[in-house]
Specification:
Blueprint: H1 12-24, H2 32-41, H3 45-50, E1 56-57, E2 62-65, E3 68-72, E4 76-80, E5 89-92, H4 95-107, H5 135-152, H6 162-175, H7 180-187, H8 192-196, H9 204-216
Antiparallel strand pairs: 1-2, 2-5, 3-4
Helix pairs in contact: 1-2, 2-4, 2-6
Length: 217
């Protein structure tokens, strides 16, 4: 996946509708907290899947991101460094994200012997076969949710993947006027131009407001 390709972020209204649907669905509600976190942190899916209980610091209210979980058919599960050195970061947890992590940890259902991957254990999600959930699991969950949503409602939901969640978060933060360098850090982008590509909504009115705001200071 190349972050520099402009991807479709969904609107805030679509995000709300999608999250509400997941939360209220008797089957898919089990993935609600994970999907909420993806939308509200902009984590890469392999970073999210690699998180272990010890990466969630409730005292400092931070998420530690210094590795990703990957799986290949011939190798099985393995831990990989973050995509770039900028990918290694600690990001602040908002109260709602923290609440979701608490619920995930409370509800997690690990096999009797906690699986260990390259020295790491305490992963957050497992499938029905007691395997650690990795990116492909989540890709499938999203596909099934969208399918069910679009079979239920006349107004169709666009394609949503874990990467669309990341792009949506980035766009939302840009639209909210977050400092591009702060957003670059949160996203773990090594190149500011990738982050700046999400600031494409800027027009004369936005520029006028910014100039006015800076003069006031």
């Amino acid at each position: 996946m190349n972050d520099s390709v402009t991807r479709e972020a969904i609107s805030r209204a679509e995000e709300r509708k999608f999250l509400r649907f997941v939360k209220e669905d008797p089957h898919f509600c089990r993935y609600y907290e994970g999907i909420y976190i993806l939308f509200k942190t902009g984590l890469r899916i392999s970073e999210f899947c690699g998180l272990t209980i010890s990466d969630i610091d409730f005292k400092e209210h931070t998420i530690n991101i210094d590795h990703q979980l990957q799986k290949k058919s011939k190798i099985g599960y393995y831990i990989q460094e973050t995509k770039t050195t900028s990918g290694t970061r600690k990001i602040p947890m908002t109260a709602d994200v923290e609440e979701c992590f608490r619920k995930i940890i409370e509800k997690r259902n690990p096999p009797k012997a906690e699986p260990m991957v390259d020295g790491k254990s305490g992963f957050l999600y497992f499938d029905k076969n007691e395997s650690i959930c990795y990116s492909l699991h989540w890709e499938h969950y999203f596909q099934h949710i969208i399918q069910k949503y679009n079979n239920t409602y006349k107004v169709q939901m666009p394609v949503i993947t874990p990467h669309v969640c990341r792009h949506t978060y980035c766009s939302n933060m840009a639209k909210s006027g977050m400092n591009p360098k702060a957003l670059q850090y949160l996203m773990g982008h090594s190149d500011i131009s990738v982050t700046l590509n999400t600031y494409t909504h800027v027009n004369l009115e936005d520029a006028r407001e910014e100039v006015a705001r800076i003069q006031v200071v």
